[in-house]
Amino acid sequence: MNCPMASRSRYPVYAVVLMMGCFILAPSMPVAAESYEEVPVINGGTLTGTVTLVGDVPRAKGYSLVTFPDPIYCGRISDGNGWRLLQAFNVGPNGAFQDVVVAIEGIEKGKPFHFKKPRIEAVDCTFNPFTTVVRDRSPVEVVNLDPAMHDIQAYETSHLGPRVLFNRPLPINPRHSRESAENPNYKKHFPGEPIEQEVRMTKGRRVFVMQCGFHAYMESWAFVVENPYYDVTKETGGFRIPDIPPGTYRLVVWHPQIGAPKEYDVTIQPNKESTLNIQIEAPKGRLYANESMNEHRFSLSGGGTSQIIPTVELQRY
Fold this sequence. Notes:
Elements: E1 3-4, E2 14-19, E3 22-27, E4 37-38, E5 45-54, E6 61-64, H1 71-74, E7 77-78, E8 83-86, E9 90-91, E10 97-98, E11 101-105, E12 109-110, E13 119-123, E14 126-128, E15 131-134, E16 138-144, E17 150-156, E18 163-170, E19 195-199, E20 207-212, E21 219-224, E22 230-232, E23 238-244, E24 247-254, E25 262-268, E26 273-275, E27 278-281, E28 313-314
Parallel strand pairs: 4-12, 5-26, 5-27, 7-28, 13-16, 15-21
Antiparallel strand pairs: 1-25, 2-3, 5-23, 6-8, 9-10, 11-22, 11-24, 13-14, 16-19, 17-18, 17-20, 20-21, 24-25
């Protein structure tokens, strides 16, 4: 039987992360398992399901491009009035909730844990993917495909507040000319030299966040996993976790903007597929200090002849 465990949540504590004047609530996590043993899985089962957001999708964060570097290049994705939007909730038809981490906790022995280091790309002044997973004491790779300079600021969170993990600039590929960042019609992407950095989390912390020091609307979040039994929801909101040793476990469902992770009991039967469809209530009220606005207070007009033209994507509220 699958049932919510809200009354005995193991994630009661929150940390407040201050980034570029914006407060972000991030849950402080319990201590992760220190070791995982790879063994043959006999009569393993599979867990599948979907994650759905119920209710209105929250408004996006809004950033006036006038106040950040590279407004013309980064403004190629904007609302047409000089504002860049960051929508943390990627929701498709019928509430399909994408970019949600679904992880089974407490499995200490099981299938091989061949963790492929995550690659985070800076493309069109966006960090992709927005949500992923990391493994403690393992590397992440970050690469810049833009002609604009980006700077990585990586943090971990807890009830004691944020701690800086690393801060490094992202090299630009020399094939980009200096003038390309001032051309709204420039759409070429050449990867600069990738940087690789080991993630070393403090004991008990499970949330990793990366932001560009020059462009605050560039964010990438990750959840620390301790075994190979996880997935990140796709466009349909679906997930699939195979080869699970039979037994009853705790399932954690995490997204950086839904508050405390949701928890469920899941029982895996030998050689069978179990299904768990999860509904998450959309947060209500104002989530961010810099929520997007319908009426704009600034634009680039009056500050010169340049205009911010969304030639890649016209964002909507």
